[in-house]
Design brief:
Blueprint: H1 11-20, E1 23-24, E2 66-67, E3 73-75, H2 79-89, E4 92-99, E5 109-110, E6 117-130, E7 136-141, E8 153-157, E9 168-171
Parallel strand pairs: 5-8
Antiparallel strand pairs: 1-2, 3-9, 4-6, 4-9, 6-7, 7-8
Length: 192
């Protein structure tokens, strides 16, 4: 229902899954693949990693580490609306078009320059800023692994809808409770 692993999907469906089924916390299933894995995560040219419903940390039980969202919604594409959402409620999910040069990003503010389209990708937008060179950017976490980009993070130009980054923004209000029957409205620690 959520998508097709590394081959794409619909971010709003992932948030709806968070509401209906729940997801485990980052301490149980880390957002970033560990360095030294057999594969670098969902990086281009690698298959979707197998989903294992067990905590990567010993003595933790998958079902006990689940959290739920109380809702799922889209955020307007205006950069000010996106910033307000992140400031008020925490990280959001964004989808964008990946080009060949993105796979080689190391640091700085990314702008598509060269290479063909590789497909769509969804990542976690966690903040924004302005570079020393005066470029406004979004700060994002990419789940490929910490060996990619700037320790797993990247910056992309803000306010220009670079690669469609500002077009498909989704979010939800995670619960502070970890059971489906008791979902509070405050921002929690579950990470999508």
């Amino acid at each position: 229902m959520c998508g097709d692993g590394c081959d794409g999907g619909y971010p709003i469906s992932a948030w709806q899954y968070f509401v209906q089924t729940g997801v485990v916390t980052d301490e149980c299933d880390p957002y970033f693949d560990q360095v030294g894995c057999k594969h670098p995560g969902c990086e281009p040219a690698y298959p979707t990693p197998a989903c294992e419903k067990k905590c990567k940390v010993q003595n933790q039980i998958w079902e006990e580490k689940k959290h739920f969202s109380v809702n799922a919604y889209s955020v307007k594409s205006d950069p000010h609306d996106i910033m307000a959402e992140v400031y008020k409620n925490g990280p959001v999910e964004v989808a964008f078009t990946v080009y060949e040069d993105f796979a080689h990003y190391k640091s700085g503010v990314y702008k598509h320059i060269t290479g063909g389209m590789m497909g769509g990708h969804a990542v976690k937008l966690i903040g924004w800023g302005t570079s020393d060179a005066g470029e406004d950017y979004w700060l994002l976490a990419n789940q490929w692994n910490r060996g990619w980009g700037d320790d797993g993070y990247f910056k992309i130009i803000r306010g220009k809808n670079e690669c469609g980054i500002e077009e498909d923004v989704t979010a939800g209000m995670p619960s502070t409770k970890n059971t489906a029957g008791d979902r509070g409205g405050a921002f929690g620690t579950a990470i999508l």
